[in-house]
Write a structure and sequence with these properties.
The protein is α/β, with parallel strands linked by helices. It has one domain: Aldolase class I (TIM Barrel, Alpha-Beta Barrel), CATH 3.20.20.70. It has eleven helices and eight strands. The chain has an eight-stranded parallel β-barrel, surrounded by six helices. Helix 9 links the parallel strand 7 and strand 8. Helix 2 runs parallel beside helix 3 and helix 5 packs parallel to helix 6. The longest helix has 20 residues.
Length: 247
């Protein structure tokens, strides 16, 4: 079964519009976990435009004390500051992304052929017992890219589903994107890698993704679920997404 990890970046970004402590990132984490989310995802950036360094530690404490069965997934570019944060917090999963710090959001996966040696060193550096390492992966990476990803020693790839999510008004293009995602996921699974997915997945496009790309271990959803939560509240939004994933 595919599990749901809720990305809280959008909650933090809304909070940061004012010098006030609400909406509470930790408070929303409690709501989504109580509603059945399997974990929390965050992507702290150097400029703290959404998740702040203090959030990283606050969430770690709450998950350890109140939700020991929930998973903590931290995404980021493997800089020295990121290494230090991972060492301090020791999340269950680390998702490595090739983002420039100035990017608004993640928008591409690793070039495994060109950056494989770099990633091999990074994976060795952050490897720890009980910690899973996932690498952000373009939807059309295919068997060659997945084979290079496997050589880094990572445990999973995370399929970048942004191009698919962007096809909300173009069903034909969405079908093309699903084929690429399915082929890359299949190659990863055959290579012994787990498969995560995330970016612009919604209640509308998730069913077709689930049907076309079987065997996905985890989806990380932030923007879409936050938009739905504005209508229904976070608890009901989590229940709706779980219904799709478990249906």
């Amino acid at each position: 079964m595919t599990v749901l990890s809720v990305n809280l970046n959008a909650v933090a970004q809304l909070r940061n519009r004012r010098n006030l402590p609400w909406p509470s990132v930790v408070g929303i984490a409690r709501v989504v976990l109580d509603a059945g989310a399997s974990g929390i995802t965050i992507h702290p950036r150097p400029d703290e435009r959404h998740i702040r360094r203090s959030d990283v530690f606050d969430l770690a404490a709450v998950l350890a004390d109140e939700y020991p069965g929930a998973e903590y997934n931290i995404e980021g570019f493997p800089s020295e500051d990121f290494f230090s944060l991972i060492d301090d917090v020791s999340p269950h999963q680390v998702t490595l992304v090739p983002d420039d710090p100035a990017q608004a959001t993640s928008d591409h996966g690793w070039d495994f052929d060109r950056q494989g040696e770099f990633l091999l060193g990074v994976v060795k550096q952050i490897r720890s017992p009980g910690r899973r390492i996932s690498l952000f992966c373009d939807p059309d990476a295919g068997a060659r890219g997945v084979a290079a990803a496997k050589q880094t020693g990572a445990d999973r790839i995370e399929l970048y589903t942004g191009p698919y999510g962007g096809c909300y008004a173009d069903p034909e293009r969405a079908r093309v994107e699903l084929v690429a995602l399915a082929e890359t996921a299949r190659a990863a699974q055959e290579a012994g890698l787990g498969v995560n997915a995330g970016h612009d997945l919604t209640l509308n496009n998730l069913p077709a993704f689930q049907a076309a790309v079987p065997g996905v271990d985890e989806v990380s959803i932030g923007h879409g679920i936050t938009a739905d939560a504005l209508l229904w509240g976070f608890a009901e939004a989590v229940r709706q997404y779980r219904g799709v994933l478990e249906g």
